[in-house]
């Protein structure tokens, strides 16, 4: 394999597992595509699928699967706790190996175009693929949700990137974009005081004046407080830097960091960079990691 | 690819690059075999080759290449600074992915047998493949070097594992074995006092009462002192543990660790484990590293 892309399509069905099975079938037994996970959530009524593989093969599978989702999901009767605007709600493409972000943007545009051409689903391009600044942020794109989309699409400012000014009657609207891999990361504090967790989360997150690529909050879990975050660009906001900053902030409140946790998958580079920092490694590159050479 | 083995054959030719080219040709354009590096050294008059790939394909390539080495290298006229006993001097097999050490031992035995059957080269099995305790250590196996081998092989204690009690007239004797990946690791100290480096090296190495899987020394380089080591089993003697111990010992002499360096390749796990330690990661496994899934 040479170029590898990751795609994490989210489908608005997390309860009827037969329907979910039909939707993910497009990713199975397909040359060049590997289905890494399929996580239906009943409360959200949503399924998050993670696939990796050859960019062309993955793009084809996504388009096919969107057609199935548009058939089996009826958004007019959909309910669930997670915001959503379409049967195939959001489709991010993520560069993993030997790929640039620009190449992922190209794939997003091609898939967006095909979703409309083949299935009649209007598409907004978002994040790195966005065509206007206000479409970068997925939350803004999705604002109004499925129910508000018919009116939103009439607004010239929200004319879809592909499609006309009306939704797909059952499948709604889809956001297709390109972004860096997300690292979901939690840091444990030896306190049961949620306020301390909230203050630390505010100190490290972008919106609170913290790191550019951190979205963070605090939760109580198993009797302790966890600072829970998404690192939206681990190359620019490193795991070790966030970890050490949380340790530093915790000291202020007389509490300690007891450990941390990666949720789901993270790229090798995110871990290796932390080793590099703590061991003061110089002259280091990915090429020194044996496994890098197994993937060529 | 499924199972991946690494092999690091050493050939007793490091000056005549045409001969080296003929020897490594066996590893090129061969399905399932990837030549990672070929490092001829003129002083040693020796070439270290690193290949990875499918176990069966790598084994075949090694046997073929040994035949070439036996043709182009004449040990009766060989000189060089490195100890050696054969044209293809030593052949270690190293488990990299989805392989046990036992499987590597089996490959070593098969290759050893074929080196004698096909090329008439007598073979000692060493390290994990050794058939007697005194053959575990390569230095003991090679003691006497090429020149001493005719006599050594007459000693019933040193009857080869494959072959008769006489050397191959031009290619000598070969050691074939199985071992863990070696991590070559250096730690820099902000001192020019070699004695301090030597004391620290003695404190951390197995022979000095230190860690079981560390072989270490001290050298002066670029005006500073470096503790230089081989970690012979990074799973049991971790990089971070050695690094922190050297930091601790350095303190005793009023010197500081300024950085460290991996020489050559090291397995991903060696780095990831250090990240795991410093970040206090729990619930962690290789499966959380995205790239693990690219190699299946």
TrEMBL record, chains A, B:
Pathway assignment: Amino-acid degradation; L-histidine degradation into L-glutamate; L-glutamate from N-formimidoyl-L-glutamate (transferase route): step 1/1
Compartment annotation: Cytoplasm
Keywords, ordered alphabetically: Cytoplasm, Folate-binding, Histidine metabolism, Transferase
GO biological process terms on file: L-histidine metabolic process
Pfam families registered for this protein in UniProt: FTCD (PF02971), FTCD_N (PF07837)
GO cellular component terms attached to this protein's record: cytoplasm
Domain Formiminotransferase C-terminal subdomain: 181-293
GO molecular function annotations of the record: folic acid binding; glutamate formimidoyltransferase activity
Residue ranges of domain Formiminotransferase N-terminal subdomain in the record: 3-180
Superkingdom, natural source: Bacteria
InterPro entries: Formiminotransferase_C, Formiminotransferase_C_sf, Formiminotransferase_cat, Formiminotransferase_N, Formiminotransferase_N_sf, FormiminoTrfase_cat_dom_sf, FTCD
Documented EC number(s): 2.1.2.5
Top-tier EC class: transferase
Identification of the protein by name: glutamate formimidoyltransferase
Organism: Propionigenium maris DSM 9537
Lineage of the organism: Bacteria, Fusobacteriati, Fusobacteriota, Fusobacteriia, Fusobacteriales
């Amino acid at each position: 394999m040479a170029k590898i892309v990751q795609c994490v399509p989210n489908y608005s069905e997390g309860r009827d597992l037969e329907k979910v099975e039909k939707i993910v079938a497009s990713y199975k037994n397909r040359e060049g595509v590997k289905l890494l996970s399929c996580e239906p959530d009943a409360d959200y009524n949503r399924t998050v699928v993670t696939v990796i593989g050859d960019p062309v093969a993955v793009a084809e599978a996504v388009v096919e699967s969107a057609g199935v989702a548009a058939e089996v999901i009826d958004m007019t009767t959909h309910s669930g706790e997670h915001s959503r605007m379409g049967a195939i709600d959001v489709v991010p493409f993520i560069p993993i190996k030997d790929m640039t972000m620009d190449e992922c943007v190209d794939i997003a545009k091609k898939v967006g175009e095909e979703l409309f051409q083949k299935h009649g689903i209007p598409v907004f391009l978002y994040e790195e693929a966005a065509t206007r600044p206000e479409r970068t942020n997925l939350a803004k794109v999705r604002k109004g949700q499925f129910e508000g989309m018919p009116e939103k699409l009439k607004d010239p400012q929200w004319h879809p990137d592909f499609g006309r000014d009306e939704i797909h009657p059952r499948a709604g609207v889809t956001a297709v974009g390109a972004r860096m891999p997300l690292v979901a990361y939690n840091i444990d504090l030896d306190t049961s005081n949620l306020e301390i967790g909230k203050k630390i989360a505010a100190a490290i997150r972008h919106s609170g004046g913290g790191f550019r690529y951190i979205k963070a909050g605090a939760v109580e879990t198993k009797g302790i407080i966890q600072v829970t975050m998404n690192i939206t660009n681990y190359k620019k906001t490193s795991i070790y830097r966030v970890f050490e900053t949380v340790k530093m902030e915790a000291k202020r409140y007389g509490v300690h960091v007891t450990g941390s946790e990666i949720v789901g998958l993270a790229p090798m580079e995110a871990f290796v960079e932390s080793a590099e920092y703590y061991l003061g490694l110089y002259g280091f590159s990915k090429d020194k990691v044996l496994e890098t050479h197994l993937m060529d």
